[in-house]
Amino acid sequence: MSASQGSTNTNTEPWGSFEDNNIIQVTGSAVIDMENMDDTSGSSFEDMGEMHQRMKEEEEVTAEAAAIHPDLGEVLIYLVSTQVWQAGKQQASKAFNLYANIDILRPYFDVEPNQVRNRLIESLIPVRMINFPQKVAGELYGPMMLVFTMVAILLHGMKTSGTVIREGTLMGTAIGTCFGYWLGVSSFIYFLAYLCNAQITMLQMLSLLGYGLFGHCMVLFITYNVHFHSLFYILWLVIGGLSTLRMVAVLISRTVGQTPRLFLCGTLAALHMLFLLYLHFAYHKMVEGILDTLEGPNIPPIQRVARDVPVVASAVVNATIKSIAAVVQSQ
Amino acid sequence: MAEVEESSKPLFAGLSDISISEDIPVEGDISVPVGSQNPDDDFSTLDEPVKDTILRDLRAVGQKFVHVLYPKKSSALLKDWDLWGPLLLCVTLALMLQGGSADSGEDGRPQFAEVFVIIWFGSVIITLNSKLLGGTISFFQSLCVLGYCILPLTVAMIVCRIVLLGALSSVSFVVRLIVVTASFSWSTFASTAFLADSQPANRKALVVYPVFLFYFVIGWMILTFSPSP
């Protein structure tokens, strides 16, 4: 029975086994294409099915061409152009799947909402055990959302403080600051960790620092709306300190030796706390200056304006304050 | 019993037994009535007047506006997505937020390019996020939904401009706050009605939050807009 058939002599399975004479070229991509989100993705059975499908499509196209254009020359031209188009499309989709594959990032976004909530709360609770390497979750969803939230809060702060950006836009500055801090400081601390032989990967560092921004977001959200200096200092020490302590404790638990620990954690603590200080004061001075001047008409306005503001902006502020003081005094 | 046996076999099992012997001539005339309509059907819209094309597209856009204003669980926005409506809304919003006069000293107002870039890059990031979280919606479908759901915010912007034609007082601020808050929550609700269906059930909150943030930023830009004196 099976000896009489030529090419289909391996037809033993009910689903039609692999026919080797039909394989032209196996698509070789280094990355598993997870675009097919079903459970059979990655199995060679699916690839064979896809190839059979493609062969059938090409046969259909050829049959269509023969039906529409009875002339042989036109058939050939049509066939060649179709095949060129198909080949080009396949090449482009292969290249796209290889290089612009966002599925590389897919495992890092595999979280549940309650996990994100727990990690947010845990980012303010310093761990006690530093002799045992602490577990750091490697996910990117929470950090990215926190960075975007901080961008939104920064925008609000910049707007209410009347900041004037000369070269660039408000949005660009906010995004640049937040993303630059997150990515830049993570890379820098990862580099220092490499020097100090700390056991932490880049993804874990990104995740750790991203969650450490939760404290920053809370402090900025409160103090951009309630303008009390003492409140800011208390929040800076307490909440900023807690999130810094958490990150420092995790890093200490993963580093050996007193000097590397001191070096790495000192740098991280300094950068993290100073960043919060910078964010508060960079966009706060204008409002402060105007508020102080309005309280005391005897104080000359020029001395209360911040010194490191660009010249044009400070001239505008001076003119405004003088006119307001004149109005207040005339009443 | 034979019928039961036949129905239990796979459908085309009997066909492999059929063979056509060579001495029976099989010939005839098979002519497929292929007229000139088939390949030209795809290009027939080239011959219609421009007014018809524009009106058809405008009607599709208007139908989707109605779907956004009354967000039921329909798939009209998803099945034939288009980006004309989002472009129209985005340009209108950006023009209205620009304020008209270009004051060189007062750069606190968002420029046209800023609003445009925020809307489109925000939509792209939300789409990437929902795809990475395992969503089944395609890239352009998601862009389409997010763009169309800016409609309530555009309406709020128009209302705010009208309110600001009057006096700049705290009453007008409260009115604008209420209008912007209502339209921003409407936008978020409308877009989640379309987007959240394509996500696994327990991860809806993870997709809703960036959408909320996105419309919040746009709503905040509308609320803090003040016309030039």
UniProtKB/TrEMBL annotation, chain A:
Keyword Cell membrane: yes
Highest taxon listed in the record's lineage: Eukaryota
Membrane topology, from the record: Multi-pass membrane protein
Location of this chain's protein in the cell: Cell membrane; Cytoplasm; Golgi apparatus, cis-Golgi network membrane
Gene Ontology biological-process entries: cell differentiation
Residues spanning the membrane: 140-158, 170-193, 205-224, 230-250, 262-283
Keywords: Cell membrane, Cytoplasm, Differentiation, Glycoprotein, Golgi apparatus, Membrane, Transmembrane, Transmembrane helix
Signal peptide: none
GO cellular component terms, semicolon-separated: Golgi apparatus; plasma membrane
InterPro entries from the UniProt entry: tRNA_Mod/Golgi_Maint (IPR051521)
Primary location group: membrane
PANTHER family cross-referenced by the UniProt entry: NATURAL KILLER CELL-SPECIFIC ANTIGEN KLIP1, PROTEIN YIPF3
Role played: Involved in the maintenance of the Golgi structure. May play a role in hematopoiesis.
Similarity section: Belongs to the YIP1 family.
Protein name: Protein YIPF3
Automatic annotation (TrEMBL), chain B:
InterPro entries reported for this sequence: Yip1/4-like, Yip1_dom
Residue span(s) of domain Yip1: 70-221
Protein keywords: Membrane, Transmembrane, Transmembrane helix
Domain of life of the source: Eukaryota
Biological process, per Gene Ontology: endoplasmic reticulum to Golgi vesicle-mediated transport
Topological type in the membrane: Multi-pass membrane protein
One Pfam family, short name: Yip1
GO CC terms in record: Golgi membrane; trans-Golgi network
Keyword Transmembrane among UniProt keywords: yes
Subcellular location: Golgi apparatus membrane; Membrane
Residues spanning the membrane: 81-100, 112-133, 145-167, 173-195, 207-226
Family of the protein in this entry: Belongs to the YIP1 family.
Protein's recorded name: Protein YIPF
